[in-house]
Specification:
Layout (H helix, E strand, L loop, with lengths): L7 E7 L2 E9 L24 E2 L4 E2 L7 E4 L5 E4 L1 H5 L8 E9 L8 E9 L5 H14 L1 E9 L2 E10 L2 E7 L17 E3 L1 H14 L10 H14 L19 H15 L20 E3 L24 H5 L7 H9 L8
Keywords: DNA damage, DNA recombination, DNA repair, DNA-binding
Function: With LigD forms a non-homologous end joining (NHEJ) DNA repair enzyme, which repairs dsDNA breaks with reduced fidelity. Binds linear dsDNA with 5'- and 3'- overhangs but not closed circular dsDNA nor ssDNA. Recruits and stimulates the ligase activity of LigD.
Subunit structure: Homodimer. Interacts with LigD.
């Protein structure tokens, strides 16, 4: 840490305990940067700063800060104006709370720093804070000022050192509105099983084994052109046909992952898992209704058995008029 230049000197305020520290960048950028050049002769392209009113180039000593109002008016703001602001964290990392690490949303994570003890007197309180964080399994939430603005930070233990992650303020993190699909999607159990199989096949990875292949390829191109050689050509990536079937895409992915690990490439049918899902899982839309509820009831059959009322119904008597008609039809005998 001695050869790394500190970017900020101050102290950690831990209650009434003050710990002198130096703020050191914990990360470094290995990206290859390019300069803009004139393609005809290779000359550097540089930007010059001109004053709009005087139409002339100005130096850095002549440049200040200004706030542009809604109507376009520029309000000059000097360093003296900002230095008089009541910021108690101007040279202090003020710890305000201790919380479990899972309370911090990763979306809030910003730049990372190491906090180096500022001399021998800081060794004891620095070690005390580090061991207290270890034993509590918590992180410290702090406020500090850097580059003209107050920031939020999270202190945690990394090895034998204390690291601080800059945090965005909660109102600086956007809500994920309009990001997720707004259509009704049904995910089947078989698709989830294949996704689980793909995750199991890919397994874990040691992050130390990962490297920037693109940067290495760019370095090869630069080295070749610097020595007057032709840049190396790489084979274009193989592009398969567009797979419209999600199941086929998952099976091909599992097969390719297993082949890369030297395992059996055959994708065998997965056993049916016992899950609480008895129907396909619908995500983000209206619930599907079962077609069983839409069946219409069968018409009732006519019963041939007699009802009690029909059994007790008396037999109809012959009409008297019919009896009289029968008597008239019989001829009478004549007397001698």
């Amino acid at each position: 840490m001695l050869h790394v230049r500190s970017i900020w000197n101050g102290a950690i305020s831990f209650g009434l305990v003050s710990i002198p520290i130096k703020l050191v960048n914990a990360t470094e950028n290995h990206s290859i940067s390019f300069r803009q050049i004139h393609t005809e002769d290779g000359g550097r392209i540089r930007y010059r700063k001109f004053c709009e009113l005087e139409d002339r180039e100005v130096t850095g000593q002549e440049i200040g800060k200004g706030y542009e109002d809604a109507d376009g008016t520029i309000i000059p703001i000097t360093d003296d104006d900002l230095s008089s602001l009541p910021i108690p964290t101007a040279r202090t990392i003020e710890i305000v709370a201790f919380v479990p690490e899972d309370r911090i949303d990763p979306l809030q994570m910003d730049a990372a720093y190491y906090l180096a003890a500022g001399g021998a007197p800081a060794a004891k309180p620095y070690t005390l804070l580090r061991e207290a964080l270890k034993r509590s399994n918590k992180v410290a939430i702090a406020k500090f000022a850097l580059r003209g603005k107050e920031r939020l930070g999270m202190l945690r233990v990394v090895g034998d050192a204390i690291a601080m992650h800059g945090l965005l303020w909660p109102d600086e993190v956007r809500a994920p509105e309009g990001v997720a699909p707004d259509t009704d999607v049904t995910v089947r159990d078989q698709e989830l099983d294949l996704a689980d199989a793909l995750m199991d096949t890919l397994g874990e990875v040691d992050l130390e084994d990962l490297h920037d292949e693109y940067r290495e390829a760019v370095e090869e191109v630069i080295a070749a052109k610097a020595s007057g050689e032709a840049p190396p050509e790489s084979a274009p990536p193989e592009r398969e046909g567009k797979v419209l079937d999600l199941m086929a895409a998952l099976e091909n992915s599992v097969r390719a992952a297993r082949e890369s690990r030297g395992e059996e490439a055959e994708v065998k049918p997965l056993p049916q898992r016992k899950t609480s899902r008895s129907s396909p899982k619908a995500t983000g839309g209206k619930k599907s209704t079962s077609t069983a509820k839409k069946k219409t009831a069968a018409p009732a059959r006519k019963s041939t058995s007699k009802t009690p009322q029909q059994e007790k119904k008396p037999t109809a008597k012959k009409s008297p008029a019919k009896k009289g008609a029968a008597k008239k039809a019989t001829p009478r005998k004549r007397s001698a």
